[in-house]
Amino acid sequence: MTPKLSLVIMFLMSPIGILNASSQCQAGEHSIDGMFLRGHTFMTYPVGLPEMCYFRCEEEVTCQSYNFVIAQRICELNNRTKEATPEDFMPDQRRYYMKRSHNRVPLGSIKELPADTCGEIRASEGEEMIDGIHWIYFEENGEVIEAYCKEGWQKINGEVPVCFGAKDNEYGAFNMTKSGRVKTMKLIHRSGSVHCNPTTGASYWGCTHSRYQGDLTTIITDVDKKPVLPPAYDLKDFGGPEEKPHFYSLPGYHHNSTELVFRTLVNPLSVSNNQEMQIWYGPDMVDRYEENNSGKTCVDVYAFYV
Ligand SMILES: *[C@@H]1O[C@H](CO)[C@@H](O)[C@H](O)[C@H]1NC(C)=O
Ligand SMILES: *[C@@H]1O[C@H](CO)[C@@H](O)[C@H](O)[C@H]1NC(C)=O
Ligand SMILES: *[C@@H]1O[C@H](CO)[C@@H](O)[C@H](O)[C@H]1NC(C)=O
Ligand SMILES: *[C@@H]1O[C@H](CO)[C@@H](O)[C@H](O)[C@H]1NC(C)=O
Ligand SMILES: [Ca+2]
Ligand SMILES: [Ca+2]
């Protein structure tokens, strides 16, 4: 068949072909009757045929899915999928829901379609999410920034790692780069280690002295040195009037774990953009047993926003 002829045939066939396909099943997507996505409609259109919604959605780069209001024949174009915001996927017998099946841009991949958090991108795109720079809101519906996302985690420091020493209040400082609520954080080891005593071995995250029994002493605090991760109620001390809580057990993690993922907070931590946070070595934080400590651990900091 000559190229010219095949083009003519495609032109003749395509409207019917696509209309049929979109009303039944398009590339694995199908409509979900009696359901709709609430609160993410950025455009509504009255249409003649329900299939026209498919084309309206295709015309908008930010269209991720649509609701169709059956009796009134109205398309509601959404800038999210039900995977991104499952809590907004609601029953409604008057509508049906359809995910965009063709040319859908991944959430957060273009400036016109920023995500709320890296976690929302992960929810929307699942295993297909690519680690790297994504567009997200810096504050709720405010300015848009580029952030490095790794799965649902947002990297907080830039190229330069955050380093903390083991004595003389040599905490590592970093500033949050997005305001919002943080469920937990993680530290990924980049270099260095700390000693709590000249005779005991090195550790990335704690003191290898037998007294600590494998517990860890790396603590994220706010700017007032108040422990945040782990929270103060998870910290232990040795008992006695001079003692202060400064170590903890974290099941699954040990002195030289390549990353330290803190437990999810029961009450997420509200942070403002540019708020300073600190990483402390426990004994240095409470000014106990620190004179003969040495070394420094350098890390990348990641936060998981709600
Ligand atoms: C997405 O839609 C909501 C309304 O449902 C709107 O407030 C928001 O600005 C839209 N976002 C984008 C990036 O278009
Ligand atoms: C954090 O932000 C404050 C105020 O903008 C700034 O003075 C400080 O140097 C920043 N700290 C870090 C570690 O970037
Ligand atoms: C942790 O790693 C450091 C440096 O790589 C090493 O010297 C130390 O023995 C290790 N400590 C433990 C408890 O495995
Ligand atoms: C290190 O200092 C602590 C007190 O802070 C002391 O109990 C310990 O004996 C010292 N270790 C060595 C090897 O000097
Ligand atoms: Ca100190
Ligand atoms: Ca010591």
Automatic annotation (TrEMBL):
<feature type="signal peptide">
    <location>
        <begin position="1"/>
        <end position="21"/>
    </location>
</feature>
<feature type="domain" description="Apple">
    <location>
        <begin position="25"/>
        <end position="102"/>
    </location>
</feature>
<keyword id="KW-0732">Signal</keyword>
<dbReference type="Pfam" id="PF00024">
    <property type="entry name" value="PAN_1"/>
</dbReference>
<protein>
    <recommendedName>
        <fullName>Apple domain-containing protein</fullName>
    </recommendedName>
</protein>
<dbReference type="InterPro" id="IPR003609">
    <property type="entry name" value="Pan_app"/>
</dbReference>
